## 1
Amino acid sequence: MGGDRKKMRLCCTQQEEDFWLGEPLYEEDKSVGFHRMWFLEVLARKTDFKISLQSKEGYYTKRIHWSDFHYEKKLRAYIIHRELLSNEIVLDFDAPTYEKNVSNFKDIYPFLKRKGFVPYIYFSGNKGLHVHFYLTFKPLVKELEMKIQEDIVNHFRKAATFEKMFTRFIAKKLEWLYTHFSIDGNLNHTNHLIRSEGSLNKLGFKTFLGHTPEDIPIIAPIYNIENKSYPKFPFHDYTNSLDDIKYSALTDLVKLCKEFVKVKKIGKKEPKYLSLKDFFQKPRVNSEKPCIKFLESQEFGNIGEGRKRALFVLASHYNDDPQQVAKLKEWNEVVLNNHLSSFEIESSAKSTTGKVGCRYIKELLGSIGYGHICKGCSK
């Protein structure tokens, strides 16, 4: 595998360099790599997100913080996938055709506009639309009761933690849109990555279209190396401030925040003991491993990564269970939506020895951004 990875094309070649890097000038029609890097540098001032590179052959690198990534690789990478910012929501329109995705967005735009969402519309480079929203929570400072503000600060301690959880709460309110308008709902509830602005897809670069349906061209705008056309970005590359971003100030932000506080029971202290029996009783040890519980959860199924390795782990976990294959097939149906074939499941069940080390499981969880779940098994 090590030899194969060396052949993977993660960065542009010298032949492509003139187009890819362009002149290092602050011009709108120059340097794909430079514009993308500058744009992501500005976003990283909000949240130091993690990224993963993808080669033209489909190989993904491990995740690394944007701020720790080498300057030259930032410039030359073909495809960068990034985490969402703590205040960012993305709707990934994934209908079979570009025309249908445009139609679906136009159908829900009046609702989004009425609610205060300001969209950043991108053509994915193939057929889809990626619609980004950057929420602002500053109105809460003036409009939310001080007692609730104090409860939020004392509960979360860090602004980014509050923003991330509150943003996901708001994103969940939009779930009714997903099935009706062919929207991929995985992005906003997991650590799933999104292809970054200015990165390649099958046909061309992910490029900015505008903020309203009127800005979207009728024909899919293909920008790529072959036709020597450059992708567009939302604001000029000499900006140094997050203030250049058009934020979504939601019309019902205070109401949503109060609901969020209530649902999460923020500021309410629950009684630790409900009776003397509970007071004197020793705490029970949970024999179910957190890693297994997570791999069997819908949260893992929504990630869309590491499914074959998870099958290997679960097949080993149920090695001595007479219902091993049946449980694996049920997991495949309920959690993975039948992603794996019966042959893969039965082969894995036959080949397992029932022994999988914590290190393997921890590496699996770490590769999908959930390494914190594995604390090591108690002796």
## 2
Amino acid sequence: MVLKHLKTLTYAGLGVLLSVSAQAQTTNLDYAWLADYSQSKALEVRIAPPPGFERVPCTDGSFCHWLRNIPLKPEGTPVRYFDGDIKTHAKHYAVLDLDTGTRDLQQCADAVMRLKAEYHYAQGEYSKIHFNYTSGDRVAFDDWRQGRKPVVRGNKVSFTEASGAPDNSYRNFRKYMTQIFSYAGTYSLAKEMNAVKVRDIQVGDVFIVGGMPGHAVMVMDVAINEAGKKKFLLAQSYMPAQDMHILKNPEGGASPWYSADFYVFLNTPEWQFSSRDLKRFKN
């Protein structure tokens, strides 16, 4: 992590570095589901760090950078379910400008997988897009785009032979994600990830409880103060499928920032996580 190499800097010096870094992070931004992109809507522009905190550095083009610049819908936008109905009891700070679809598929773990896959698709890193079905079978976009498609019969998964030229289109990628949403979830995703300590929390980590049902929320940003204390933002979808949204902290008034010093239990508006539930993608 970059911060390991900054221990000898003064906090003021770190602040200058963070400011310069943020100004430089304007490239490698691609959100393929959008017709256009405006950085004025970016998460890091819309949501300021807590008083006395600075955002941790992000490498240009990294998943951290991509998540931090993801666009948000206008202030006051309600959370809507996949069928268009408004979630009247939502406890959200902002709504991601990310389509949900018209089927009850893109729920909690699905939205987390969607963001990770969208990032790698934007980078052309097709070999890094792969998830396991609940059965444990690995289904990779590299296979999918070359025509090797999974066939599910009961609890068995087989694959067709490759056919034709590779189809790298975004439309085909979304078809792949629909399959993933249909046959994967928190149970399978939790097994694919590595556990990490909350003190080492990074942008892109996931609080996840694997189950039927379980729940998953993604760490969208992390900030740090002079004393080394960390705070972070969380985003979720939920059941039924709904707009992915930045959560308010139920213990922080109207703030969306959560403290990494929560000790054992992390209370979010619709789920209680444990400090042991923080995990990280392996690639």
